[in-house]
Amino acid sequence: MRYEKWKDIVQLSGPKGLKLIRGFRDDALKGKLKGARSSRLNQQYRVIYKVQGDQFIVNVVEVNPHDYRSKA
Prior knowledge:
Layout: H1 2-20, E1 27-28, E2 37-40, E3 45-52, E4 57-65
Antiparallel strand pairs: 1-2, 2-3, 3-4
């Protein structure tokens, strides 16, 4: 699964490595998840995580399916 590749990149180069790979589309989140980041695992799934301090301790908050439908 792509999650395993995601973990390998984080282990080797930290969250900065995720930003170098366009397919992950690693972005800072806003709103109630401010302080967390989101990486795309595939078209449907995202991993939402937080980085704690300078030690690059990554705390995965959740891996969830992304819903593209309008919330109107």
